[in-house]
Write a structure and sequence with these properties.
globular, mainly alpha
Length: 106
């Protein structure tokens, strides 16, 4: 079965992170997951990199550089639309933040 409508709008469904993690948590313990926030990864790649190494219990290794690749430009989102999106995901995000023990400024 292939639905063009679903594939065009699936990104909204995938944004309900609590739902996504609930499915994973049925099979794996919470402690087996490390959630990394994209903005922190972009702004502090060395900090996030070290957090991932620690989580995976790997020896410390420092690459020569953290290069940004495939960097594009984005347009500013209309504040009314941003507020509507935030309201749409509000309850889901509260549950998600509770699940991961962190809170992001979304």
């Amino acid at each position: 079965y292939h639905s063009v409508y679903y594939h065009r709008h699936a990104y909204v469904h995938k944004g309900f992170y609590d739902f996504q993690l609930t499915n994973w948590f049925k099979h794996f313990a919470n402690e087996q997951f490390l959630v990394v926030e994209n903005n922190q990864l972009l702004n502090e790649p060395d900090v996030v990199y070290n957090e991932v190494l620690d989580f995976l219990e790997l020896d410390s290794f420092r690459p020569d550089a953290f290069k940004k690749v495939n960097v594009g430009s984005t347009k500013k989102v209309d504040e009314g639309l941003r507020a509507q999106i935030a309201e749409n995901f509000k309850e889901s995000n509260v549950r998600f933040f509770d699940m991961i023990g962190k809170e992001y400024d979304w």
